[in-house]
Design goal:
The chain is α+β, with helices and mostly antiparallel strands and 154 residues long. The protein is built from 4 helices and 6 strands. The chain has a single domain (2-153), classed as Gcn5-related N-acetyltransferase (GNAT) (Aminopeptidase). The chain has a 6-stranded mixed sheet, sandwiched between helices. The termini are far apart.
Length: 154
């Protein structure tokens, strides 16, 4: 999915959500890893090496969204030239359908467009598709992923 800066439709004001940039803060990184793993319902180890080695790259920011001091969602943004990419948006099941994924995605877009990015891109899951469409993204390509069936599926 992609959008131009002019296509961006920010979510309404969310004073209940506090956004924190992880940066080099080891404590925030630990929280972000836990939230991301729970959001993807995957082992934490899947994200540990990716986040711990890449968070210091220029233009790459990991964001945490908090509500009442509880971490509720994460998203990673990469600003490179005129583009801003959104990656690894994750909201644990107990916090879904409250707009937190949309809010943290909008934060990444706002921060990416501010220094001059002119377009944004992402790859959406089925669950995230309506969220991103509401933010102004449109589908620019579709692909099919083929996987090997589990042995139990035969």
């Amino acid at each position: 999915m992609a959008m131009t800066r002019d296509d961006f439709r920010p979510v309404g004001d969310r004073p209940d959500v506090d956004f924190r940039r992880v940066g080099a803060d080891a404590g925030l990184l630990d929280v972000a890893l836990a939230v991301t793993a729970r959001g993807f319902e995957a082992p934490r180890e899947m994200f540990t090496s990716l986040f711990s080695t890449g968070m210091q790259a220029e233009g790459l920011d990991l964001w945490l969204a908090y509500v009442d001091d509880v971490p509720v969602s994460t998203a990673t943004g990469l600003v490179f030239g005129e583009s801003v990419g959104i990656f690894d948006v994750a909201t644990p099941p107990e916090h879904r359908r409250k707009g937190y994924g949309a809010a943290v995605s909008a934060k990444v877009l706002t921060e990416g467009f501010a220094p001059g990015a002119s377009y944004a891109y992402l790859q959406s899951s089925e669950m995230g598709f309506p969220v991103y469409k509401a933010l102004g993204f449109r589908t620019v390509s579709t692909y099919v992923v083929h996987t090997r069936p589990d042995a139990d599926d035969s």
